[in-house]
Every structure is written in structure tokens, then in C-alpha cells.
Amino acid sequence: MSGTPNRLRLVRAGIDTYQQPVVYMHRNCSVCRSEGFNVLARVHIQCGGREVVATLNVITDDRLGADVAGLSEAAWNALQPEADAWAVFSHPEPPQSAPALRAKVFGRRLNEQNFLDLMRDTADNRLSDIELAAFVTACAGERLDLQETIGLTRAMLAIGQRINWGGGPVLDKHCVGGLPGNRTTPIVVAIVAAAGHRIPKTSSRAITSPAGTADTMEVMAPVGLDLASMRRVVEQEGGCIVWGGNVRLSPADDVLIRIERPLDFDSDGQLVASVLSKKAAAGSSHVLIDIPVGPTAKVRSAKSADSLEARLLATARDLGLTLSVLRTDGRQPVGYGIGPALEARDVLSVLRVNPDAPRDLRERALDLAAALLDIAPDAEPGSGRNLARTLLDSGAALKKFLAICEAQGGFTEPTVAPHRAPVLAIHGGHVRDVDNRRLAKVAKLAGAPISATAGVDCRLRIGHTIRAGEPLFQVCAQTPGELEYALDYAAKNADIFGIAEDAP
């Protein structure tokens, strides 16, 4: 077998390439020579009854033998080879969606079948990251019209799993993002489930932000549940908060998100397709969308919010979803913490009705829970707010949240990183504005979300008065090096908080 030119023995490289399968070969190996593979070539790998298309990286030293191929974690998990397994390597067939991709790059409109081909090839890893980046770029801005948005949404929905919860309403909520600390989901899920509704919430992990809902929830309970476990939790407690990547409700979207977020492209069409395909796949019937609007949020103006809202509503109608939109203040962070454990601490503080709980997080969560309860079938219009407040203040929401945590695998109390230091105001005055993006970057440089206990503790708000030398916020890190790295960035960006000096 080892003498066959297109076969190599597989080893686990131990390299995390996130969702992208990568194969590592020595530049003098027989497969590189006989098949004519070059760096970054797409390579079809077959081992036993499994196959994957991976991107080639070439090794120039002797860490790999000429008869060995190393697999990244994503490639290894896709093939799941036995010990000392050999694989067959070949050129992959051209992706069926190549004509559609080229057409979109040159500005042509695509139909639903075109998008179906593209999403199927995306989920099957038949398109390289370069090709996916070209697709994302070609769809960015206003390059997807409404019908294309609907076609893309339907295509994403068609190639993933779908959950059927049986009869009755299934509620859900989603925030379009861009606001540090806006961790309302665990509170809303607890309130809505305590009210007797089903709310199976699938959430994402952070890629370029300091925390995603799944990262924050994972500080308190396991989130990597499979579909059967998710169903068990919902049937038992009425709600859940799990990581969506493990249930594969919209697998093509999970891949596209990996490409979109580092590029930081704003595209209403892709956002709508991403959100609503997952809501429909999760079996949701009534959905609330939170759109924070502010100069450093994802949606920066009322005009942009109008456009996004219209597209969301039209696409939801096509899918048969009942959808409502709530616009919220996106000018500044929500809660005190930015980072998984710090945000988890805020969530618990609100659920426990602590006197010092962040009031903005409490009120925003009540607003969202009320709006979601109000769109439920047979709800009395305007009654949601009183019901939500009663369930929160009585402890019913806390009891339900802890029950959900136990059903998902057990509750853990969050802790905060040990190395902490304040960032001080250079001069006094009142807070005029906040740069959400740069404040979030401080939390990321401190180690969040990889270090779940790291981040930023920020209590300052627009309109507050501060004196020179008083803390703007506190940085929390797991190591002294990460703390210094974050503090250095904060020092070089002293205008994260816009301070208007008071007149003498």
C-alpha cells in the first residue's frame, strides 16, 4: 500500500484550523509529485467510507515523512480515521456551483437553485476560503435584492436539519449584535419558559467579539448538546440555551460566518438569511429581533434599521414566521461586564434581583421578554411587561434558569480573572459618547473569550460625570502579560470614552 503513489498514512497534526479542513504534506511526498498538488490546492481525501475536501499546506522541513499526511482537527474529525489508517488522495471534482459563483461575482442575479448549489457546496466544503470570500464580497452591501435574500434563506434552510416540536407556538429571539455586554438572552429565555412557553434557543460562539451567548452560557452550564439532548431539555423545562454549531441547523451559514466576520462586511441580505434560516430550522413560529441602533453598533442609523427591518419582515412572511422587531439603544454597552464570565455574573445578578444588578440589562431584558410574550398566540396585547416583571421579581425566572442549567448538565458559579487594573480618566467632565468597538477590543486583548474569566468591567455611562484620575473601566486578565497588552491598547486609545470637559 505504501508504494501506491496516491496513498499516504494519516497522522493527527494537532493544529486547530477552526472549521476549515487542512492537510499537511512534505514537499517531496509522492502525492505532491504525482498529482501535481501545489500550496493551497484543494485535495480530495478518502479514508474508509468517509471523505473530505481539504486545503493543502506544504511542509518544507522533516517534521513529516514523505509517506505521511497530517490532518488538522477539522479534517481529522471529518474522516475519523483509525490508528495507522491510510487514505487515497486525488483532485476533487469541480464544484457544481462554480458557474453561479462566477455569475454573482460579475453582478448577475441568482435564483433559488443557484443558491441551493452554492450552499450545498459550502456545507460539503467543496469551495475554498478564497472562493467563499469572493461569494461573500459579491453579496455584500446592497448586492442581494429581496428575492435573492429569500432564495439564499431557503437554500440555507434546505440543506440543514429541521426540528419539529409538534403543535403549538415556539418562541425565539435574536439580537443582530454589535453591542458589548448585551447578554439578555439567558434572562429572556428564563422568563419566557417560566411563563409556560417553549423557547429552544440556539446561540453562537464569539469569533471576533469578546463573548457570544454560547460562551457566556457555557460559563454556567454545558452548551455543546446534540439534537437529542436539546430536545430532552426543552421537553423537560420548556427552554434551552445551547451552541448552535453542534446541532447543524444551518451548516452552510456556520461556514459563511467564519468568512464574513473577519472581513467585517455589512450585508442586510446575508444577515437576514443567516438569522431566519436558523430560526425556521429550529422550529420557531414566533420570533423577536432586537436591533440596537447607534454610531458604533452594527446598525448605525434609523435609515439602516428601516431597511433591515423591511427585509426581515418580508423574508419572515415568505417562510411563514410571525416576526416582530424591537429597536433598542445601541449607543453604549449594556450591563457591567464585557467577556463571558463577567457577562454571566451580570445575568445572574439580574435573575437574582440583586439591588446592585445592572439596571440597563434588567430593563432591556424585560423589554424584550415583554415584546416576545406579547406576540405569542392568545396573548393580551400589552400584558407582557407586567407578566415578565412578575416572573423575574418573584424568583420564578431564576428557578427556571437554574433548572435549565441542571438539565443541560449542571450549574457552575462564574469566577473572574485574578489580574485586574483600572484605566483612569485623563481629564474630568461628562461622558458624551462611547466607542463600543474599541472597548470590546480591550476585552479581547485581555483574553476574552478564549479566557472565559477575562474582559472588562465598565460601569460608566453616557451622561455620567467623572473626575481626572477616576476609573473609566477595569481590565481583568488571566495572566499579567494579557493584562499589560490590554492596558497598552487602552492607553493608546484614551478617547474610547468621549469626555466633554465641563466649563470652568
From TrEMBL:
Organism: Tahibacter aquaticus
Catalysed conversion reaction: thymidine + phosphate = 2-deoxy-alpha-D-ribose 1-phosphate + thymine
InterPro entries xref list: Glycosyl_Trfase_fam3 (IPR000312), Glycosyl_Trfase_fam3_N_dom (IPR017459), Glycosyl_Trfase_fam3_N_dom_sf (IPR036320), Nuc_phospho_transferase (IPR035902), PYNP-like_C_sf (IPR036566), PYNP_C (IPR013102), Pyrmidine_PPase_CS (IPR017872), Thym_Pase_Put (IPR028579)
Record has Glycosyltransferase as a keyword: yes
Top-level class of the enzyme under EC nomenclature: transferase
Gene Ontology cellular component annotations, sorted alphabetically: cytosol
Family affiliation: Belongs to the thymidine/pyrimidine-nucleoside phosphorylase family. Type 2 subfamily.
UniProt EC number: 2.4.2.4
Keywords annotated in UniProt: Glycosyltransferase, Transferase
The protein, known as: Putative thymidine phosphorylase
Domain Pyrimidine nucleoside phosphorylase C-terminal: start-end pairs: 430-497
